[in-house]
Amino acid sequence: MMNTGKALLLAILSLFWFAGCANVQPWEKQNLAKPAMTFDRDRLEAGYIEHIYSSKEAASGGAGIGGGGCGCN
Predict the structure, then answer these.
(1) What are the backbone dihedrals phi and psi of residue 49, each rounded to the nearest 5 degrees, phi first?
(2) Which of these, 44, 62, 68, 70, could form a disulfide with 54 (CB 3.0-4.6 Å)?
């Protein structure tokens, strides 16, 4: 009896889990490509912030790149 209940619960949870999987049609992808959906809304500003961060964090390598701490090239 207990195994049947667990199997039924697992089946119901699996149905809910796989109900969220769907194929996105090409005309539906435009909503995902909106600028508001990106992590960095302004790429230029994000580039400046990344440059400043990597210049200040030279001792630990910045954000994946090494270099001097003064920001000079």
Answers:
(1) -65, -40
(2) 62
